[in-house]
């Protein structure tokens, strides 16, 4: 069972020298996004990433 914030349809797996690597990208809705926040003192927007 996988978390809801993963996109299993885009999963990729490789096997090299006895090591299995599975990569499952984050779903669009769970990726980091940038929002602007206006501060009361100067009303200039401040960018926050996360």
TrEMBL record:
InterPro entries: A-crystallin/Hsp20_dom, HSP20-like_chaperone
Gene3D superfamilies from the UniProt entry: 2.60.40.790
Family annotation (Pfam families): HSP20
Keyword line: Stress response
Domain SHSP, chain residue ranges per copy: 2-37
Coiled coil: none
The name this protein goes by in its record: 18 kDa heat shock protein
Organism: Corynebacterium comes
